[in-house]
Each structure stands twice: as structure tokens, then as C-alpha cells.
Amino acid sequence: MLPRSLLAALVALAALPAAAHAAGHTTITTPAGGTLVDLGSTGKAVAVSGTAEAPVSSVDVVCLQSAEPGAPSWNSLTGGANKPVTAGAFAATVTLGPGQGFCRLIAIPAGTTPTDVSPYAGPLLRLRALMPGTLGSGPNAAAVLDVAAHAVEPGAGAAFNAATFCGLSSLELTEPSQARVHTVFTCAGAVARTAAGSAASALTVDGHPAYGSLGFVFGAMANGYASAADLPGLPTVSGTLVTPADGTARLDEHDAIARCLPGDDSPPSASSCSALADAGVALSQTSTVARDARVVRQVQRWSSTDGRAHALSFDVTVGTGMIAREWSFAGGPWATHAGGDAVDVPAGPAAAEIRAAGAADDDPSGRGATAWVRPPESISFESPTIMRLRYALTVPASGVVALAFVHSADWTIADLAADRAAGEAGFGPSVAIDAPGDGATVAAGTVTVTGTATDSEGRAGVTVDGVDAAVGDDGRWSARVPVAAGDHGLDVVATDVFGLTARASRTVRAVSPVAPPVAPPGGGGGVPKAPSRSTPAPLPSASKVIVLPAARRCVSRRRLTLHLKAPKNTKIAAVAVTVAGRTTKPKLRGSAPIVLKGLPKGRYKVTVKVRFADGRTLTLARTYKTCAPKKATKKR
Predict the structure, then answer these.
(1) Judgement on whether residues 324 and 460 belong to the same structural domain of the protein
(2) Boundaries of domain holding 559
(3) What is the Cα Rg of the chain in Å?
(4) Which parts of 396-485 fold into alpha helices (H)?
(5) Do residues 152 and 103 touch, judged by C-beta distance below 8 A?
(6) Can you give the pTM of this predicted structure?
């Protein structure tokens, strides 16, 4: 029997309200997890509904950004506050702003700030937004100076600014529990506004300081030139965000580039920059987000705006948001770097990887890689967190010169390797020769060579033996090249906008045209006709010259007869017969035996090659099945 005092205590405990379970559970059921919401430039209204357990009587619908135990964070949503729970259900129409980042929609008890959000379930959303940054006043009011955009997936997100400002402004990972957000890259693939350790422009065109939109405004304002944004000719940007059906995202932007007049002082000042003029080049960039926002592929295309070639130099920055980091280049050793450090440039396309300092290979602490297709002139560090790639390029009078960067972020080495392989695939051209065929005989002089070339980033340039080929929009190309008599190797090179090449080769035999005999002088003292250089008549098909038995039945006697019929006005110089890897050269008597005796029962390919006196050749191949000869039967 329980003591009276203990029994009384248990009764009192049972009478207490169920405070320990007062939080209740809530679940947002609509929209579904993974719903794609295009926030545009002003935000988007989203219908939300769900269920709530007692004692929850009203809820606030919020965007959970971090579920870190003891310190979760969220942002309130317009239209989501104090929604009543009726019969265990609630509904709301909330507005997500265009700057909304990672968002798991959850419903918390109205007016509370819980430190544990595990009782509240809801969907992770996929978000897209494009927010052009414009000037609000002055002569250039409404001029677009930035193309802020972002693409957010449940496990990662990418945000952008103009290429001449911050480029890939962030590439972030969120842990599966959404406890923390890791910023792997900041301002990656950006055309640097200023030189390292200086306020001067890092971008020059033909040796003159040049500027993109925000690079000019910020540089001038930092130099006390507050009215610089009012100058006519202010460079602007434009951009569109495309979300294909495959769930990726693509930001297409165009950046105008300007220079100051009358002087070249940098940063700009009122005395050195009283006017702005087109610098002669422009930048178009495509940024593609793939693999659930863990990979961003940037392609920069520089082109001339005045029909003239220009010398271009600038830095591309790659920053990391990781607090303690190590760098590895082209698979080399891991190391930390300080501002002013320089590293050797790896040959060809290469990459720099980053990780938390001292992280083991199997440590899922978040890591990243930036790969480049065209090697830079130099690699240096502005600080332990910012790498600079220096480029010096020539922008052609027509066409483009291009750079490409692939930024990848993931938790483990294996996942990052898979991301990199997917993001870096497809760069580089391919080329093939269609005609003439390998080993073909052609007339000496000139020959037309044709083929196809492909390139993922446009139309590749093609040369044949150094001669520029005409390349169509469909990739088909053609070139006429000189060939001297004899064997000649054709060397075809395709070059893409990044400077990557692909090669194809083929060998042909060039023969000199046959000259007919000189005609005798005509009557009456006529002038003799000059010899005529003409191309020999085409050869007939191989089967008209090389005659072999049909191969429909097996060869019981293991002996074939070859017949040769030389075309008119030609002479057969040599014959070669190859059977089972052995080649013989029968005498030229119009016919010759081909002996298969000694070979085991089976199928054998017989190849006959005829060479004519003028160097041309014909080849015929036929496969025969051997069998034992029929045994004679005795007559009774």
C-alpha cells in the first residue's frame, strides 16, 4: 500500500495542467515541398493551409531560415500573423518578398518565439527572383545599374549581382536539418572593380581605366565625386532570368563598359571625368544554376562595340565565406594563403578547391571548387579569403573572346567531384573530316576539304593546313587547300571562343594530271597546239576491274581464280592479295589463282588491291566460307 503522503502527491501532480505538451504540433500541407515560386521583382502571394494540434488556437506563418537548436531564426511574412485555428485547421495567404532566401514554411503558436521548432513541420520551397537595381533620382533616374537575382533550392542557393560588381554574390549550402547555412563562395567570377590594395580600376581597355555600372559609381563616390551618377553616358546593365522546365535557372546579362573623358585618373574625379564614353567593348555573361543550385556555370563573352580590336586586362575575383579555409590548386597540396601571396598557374583548364582548414577527406563540413577553362596570366591573393585571376585578352574586331568559370559546392569530396564533373563537362570543340576520304587519290594542285565542327558555346573556327575554312551556322565547314604531288597529310584544327582546340587529320595521295600528246602542226603553217593538262578519266567501280567468284556457296576445293580487267588507257602496275593476314603479289597475266588450301574450315576475307601506273588504286574485299570437298561415292 502506498503511503498516504505519496498518494496525495501523485493526485496533486495528476491535477496539474498539461503544460509540458502545450506547444502542440503544426503541419503546413499546402504548398507541397519543392514547389517552385517565381518571386519576380516584387514578391509573390502564396496560399498556405495546414493543421494544428491543441492547445494551439492561432498561428503565425513564417519562413524558417535556420533550425539551430536553441537559436532558430525566421522572418515574418505579410499576411501570416495570428491566423485562427478552427477545427484543427488554419489557412492564410502570405507574401514572400523578392529578397527571400532559404524558406521552410512553418506555423508557430501566434505571438511566441519558440527556441525549439521541431514540433512545426512544413515544406521547403524552391525560389527564383530577379530584382533590377535602379537609380531613384537625378538625370539618370530609373537607369539599371544591377541585376540582383537568386535561385534557391532546398539544399543550396545561389545569388547574383552584375558581373562587373559582385558576380556570383553567394553560393550557399544548408544542412539537411536546416540547422546552419554555409556560405562557400562570395563575389565569385566577378570582374574586379578595383585593383588589389588600390582604389584604381582593375579593368583597362587599350591601357585606359574602364568601368562597369556600379564599379564606376562606387569608385567615384569613394573618391568624393558624389554627382558622378548624374553624368550622361553612365554605363548600365540589363538582364533576364530564365527558368527552364528542367528546374535549372539561367541569368542572361549585358554590361556596358565606359571610360572617363578627358583624363585617365582612377578612381574618377570631377576634374578627370566630366563625361563618359563607350570604351569600345561590352560584356555579356550567362550564369547557369544546376544540380539543385550546387553548381553555377558562368560564361563571359567580351565583344567589340566599334568594329575595332581592343586590348583588355582585368582581374576576376573568387571569394569564400568560409572562416577558416585552405586552398588546393590542380589537385596539389592544401595550404592557407595571405594577402600578396602568388601561386603558379596550372597548365590548361584547371581548378582551385577550398575546404575548412584541417578538414579530413571524409569530413562533411562543406567544400567548394572554382574551375576555369582559359588559364589566367597570374594567380594571387588579395586576402586569405579572396583569390584574383589576372587576364590579358584581345577583343577581336568581330566575334567574341570568352572566359568560363564553374563554381561547385557540396558537403563531401565524392559529391563535389560529381558536381564538378557535371558542371565542367561539355567545354571544348570537336571536329571531323567528311571528304576526301582517308587514303583517297586526288588531283595535285588544290583540293576541297569538308567536314563538321561542334562547340557548346557557339561556332568554332576551323583551319585546314593553316587555311581558314568557311564555317556555317550548322557547323559545316569547307576549305580549298594546296596539295603537291605525293602523299599529303591534311591537318584540321578547330578552336573555340575559349582558345580550346580539337584536331583531325587525314592522308591523301595527290597525283599530277596526265598530259595528252602534243598535236602535230596543222596545214598552212598553223601554230602547234600546246599540251593540254587534264584530269585522268575516273576509274570504274572496283568490281568492274577486280573479278572474283560469288561468295554465296562454300569453296569446296579451296581455290579461287582472280581475273583483272584494266580500264581503257590505263595500265595495272601491281596487285596485292591478302588472305588471313598473309599478302601475296601474283604475276600480272590477266588472271591468277588464290589458294586457300591449308586453312582450317571457316570464313576468310580475301582482299585484292590494284595499283595503276598513275598511282591510283582500287580495292575489293569478299568473304568466303571454306568447306571440305565432297567425298566421291562408289558406284555399285
Answers:
(1) no
(2) 542-625
(3) 38
(4) 413-424
(5) yes
(6) 0.73
Asked if the structure places residue 2 within a domain, the reply is no
CB 261 within 8 A of CB 275: yes
Q: What is the dihedral of CA 238, 155, 62, 52, to 10 degrees?
A: 150
Residue position matching grid coordinates 496560399? 47
- What is the domain-level CATH number for residue 561? 2.60.40.10
Buried b (16+ CB within 10 A) or exposed e, 390-423: bbebebeeeebbbbbbbbbbbbebebbebbbebb
Of 34-38, 226-230, 320-324, 430-434, the one with minimum mean pLDDT is 320-324
Q: At 476, give phi and psi (nearest 5°).
A: -75, 140
Question: Residue 482 domain-assigned?
Answer: yes
Residue in the block written with cell 576468310:
604
Please give the Cα distance from 497 to 461 (Å, whole number): 8
**182 domain residue, yes or no:** yes
Residue 18 clears pLDDT 60, i.e. is over it: no
Bridge-based pairing state of the strands 295-304 and 367-372:
unpaired
**pLDDT band (50, 70, 90) for residue 193:** confident
Q: Residue 6 falls within a domain, yes or no?
A: no
Compare 522 and 442 and report the one with higher pLDDT: 442
Question: Which residues neighbour 39 within 8 Å (Cβ) at sequence distance 6 or greater?
Answer: 96, 97, 98, 100, 127, 128, 129
pLDDT interval class at 9 (50, 70, 90): very low
